[in-house]
Amino acid sequence: ELMRLLVANSSQNYTTMPTTLDDQSLLGVQISLSVVLGILTLATILSNIFVIITIILTRKLHTPANFLIGSLAVTDLLVSILVMPISIVYTVSKSWAFGQIMCDIWLSSDITCCTASILHLCVIALDRYWAITDALEYSKKRTTCRAAIMIAVVWVISICISMPPLFWRQAKAHEELTDCNVNTDKVMYTIYSTFGAFYIPTVLLMILYGRIYVAARSRIFKTPSSSGKRFTTAQLIGGSAGSSLCSINSNSNQDGQLQHGGSPVFMNHVKIKLADSVLERKRICAAREKKATKTLGIILGAFIFCWLPFFVVSLVLPVCKTCWFHPVLFDFFTWLGYLNSLINPVIYTAFNDEFKQAFQKLIRFKRCY
């Protein structure tokens, strides 16, 4: 009888031990996940704050193009403050414990800020496209007021995309809430929101980048103006993402002499020197143009890499009722999208020389002028 009891106890211990180990493993995974997501959130907050402070303290960066970049950093900062911390708790605990009102606020902030971040990339690319294809005319229109209007349009569109779910969630206001998700039963809203927040902006970005790439290459391989054309000075026109465009703007007559007169030998010598200067300026501009276009390409690639999986799943699941998707993988795709708010400021500080120099001065606690 004693042996039977010993065997029973040992078998009980054997069956309960894996459960205890599983609980411990789960706790370890939750702690590790919280730490990783917390570090990601903190890095996103700090990197965007540094971009904002760098633009504010550096007078050279006070341009409409850089104000758009600063507005993007503000938007990404809002994602990291309003959305990501609560998302950490929800992702780790797998249960919503903040109530209906907080759920509505969090969901609205999530959709609005993430959409605004995506649309900011569109207006930055649009600004860059106008700057490279119509440099002289657009330089006159490229004002702070115009940048402010573009930013306002971005936020209006983002709010219009995030508002509809608030109307049909009110019916559940007094029910106990265990999860906080957008109602996927509204298929038309899903199509409206995913296309407005991602698919249409992505197509627009790809078209703009394609045209920017073609225009940049034509400028890089374009030969300097020949004799008889107007050229004596090269004007540098600043563009977004640290880009620059060279436009030749000067005078020479058919005989190779300047309009103000002078000996032909002296004028020819000046013209040769001037041509060398123009060629050197074009080489510098071509190099900066190539780098700026590459930067924009990296931004576009990072954006698609981060957000495409999330929006594909968000569109497919409500439409395909028989499809199943693992919740953990959906959480991973959600956080991959949030990661874009960290990548944006890193790209600008890593690939933009003006931002890099200003950032280095900021690290050394020197005010930039």
TrEMBL record:
Lineage top rank: taxon: Eukaryota
Subcellular location: Cell membrane
Residues passing through the membrane, by range: 31-57, 69-93, 105-126, 147-167, 187-209, 296-317, 332-351
Keyword Glycoprotein: yes
One Gene Ontology term of the molecular function aspect: G protein-coupled serotonin receptor activity
Alphabetical list of InterPro entries matching this protein: 5HT1D_rcpt, 5HT_rcpt, GPCR_Rhodpsn, GPCR_Rhodpsn_7TM
Limits of the G-protein coupled receptors family 1 profile domain: 47-348
Record membrane topology: Multi-pass membrane protein
Entries under SUPFAM superfamilies matching the protein: Family A G protein-coupled receptor-like (SSF81321)
SMART domains noted in UniProt: 7TM_GPCR_Srsx (SM01381)
GO biological process terms on file: adenylate cyclase-activating adrenergic receptor signaling pathway; chemical synaptic transmission; positive regulation of MAPK cascade; regulation of behavior; regulation of locomotion; smooth muscle contraction; vasoconstriction
A single Gene Ontology CC term: synapse
Family recorded in the similarity comment: Belongs to the G-protein coupled receptor 1 family.
Protein name from the UniProt record: 5-hydroxytryptamine receptor 1D
UniProt source species: Erpetoichthys calabaricus (Rope fish)
Source taxonomy: Eukaryota, Metazoa, Chordata, Craniata, Vertebrata
